[in-house]
Amino acid sequence: MKTIAAIATxxxxxxVAVLRVSGDGAFGICDAVFRADGGGKAxxxxxxxxxxxxxxxxxxxxxxxxxxxxxxxxxxxxxVVEFQIHGGAALARYVLAALxxxxxxxxxxxxxxxxxxxxxxxxxxxxxxxxxxxxxxxEAELRAAGALADGKLYRLCAKMQDLLTDMLAELxxxxxxxxxxxxxxxxxxxxxxxxxxxxxxxxxxxxGTTAAYVRDGINIVLAGKPNVGKSALLNALLKAERAxxxxxxxxxxxxxxxxxxxxxxxxxxxxxxxxRDGADAVEKLGVERARTALSSADIVLRVTDPADxxxxxxxxxxxxxxxxxxxxNKSDIKSGGRLRNGSNTPPADxxxxxxxxxxxxxxxxxxxxEFIDGGVIAGGLMLTETRxxxxxxxxxxxxxxxxxxxxxxxxxxxxxxxxxxxITGSTxxxxxxxxxxxRFCLGK
Length: 444
Hints:
Four Helix Bundle (Hemerythrin (Met), subunit A); seven-stranded mixed β-sheet; Gyrase A, domain 2; Rossmann fold; alpha/beta
């Protein structure tokens, strides 16, 4: 395999930029461009110790640090050299050009981690955990990604594969030697063990719902009539002045989406234009965008105020089929229990005041508990990848009704074993592997 090189830090100006080289030729390339202050060859440098020296490129010299990792004791399992240089975009590009001139080739996105997988330094699900760690935006995402990168899912799936292998061996013995006195398990004997593995898979699959919200966030849309305080409620939820708030109805003409973090979970909150007839042309566009936002909401906060009548067919019709929470804003204003039309004040699931902050934390908690299973969050391991959900679902289906016929049960066990191998990487196709590593950034 060719020796690869890439810039491992984001392009731009910063304190430090890191460039990574991996492959059999890494140490030779280091010797061609870097002179340690104490002299010596890269292969003789103290392993995993930063060495101060001079990097020589075609047009300049750069004082920098280099650290060497000897195969297989490196991230990729190959000889690796990393250079820490001053963090300038142009400087990093010129240093990379010097590494390429010395014999390296530009790494593909994810190629360092792919080589780690090929060399047995990480498993396939662990590599996907690394992607999640890089892209995580919340504490819950970090915890889930960390469990995946640490190999928790791999170890569990590998253990189940081992159990299935043992059962297959017992079945083969009972099939080949039906009259043998050997202690080989028949189909009926193995059924409880098969159901135990199926139960483990079912438990894993149950984490998928919470995991989806951890991965993507909970999509919350604020809806209601004009001037009930939707924009003020957005600001109160964010604890920041993000949306314009005015007494004039119809101030919001477009959707505004912002993200907050509550108990380590993302909440994507969208403010919308008030739903009403008789608006001008621009406001009508905002109303249409509001309806579009409603279609993708996980939950709609149906915002009212003390003078609002919830018996509004236009709004209630727009919310048909959606999970909704009735939120009465402006709880700091006393309505006397009567609406403008003389009817009684409509009931609400929760009362808040965007002005004073009353009820805001309670509202966040109501939304959180509606979607998030605290036990799953605490457990750490959850299925955030659609690929994992699909493979484990097929494995569970293969085992859910163990057959009493040895040959049929053996076929089901093999099917489940192959599905689990898609997670560990033992049976994943080359196309799947390529797609996974294409999702990585350069230098990782």
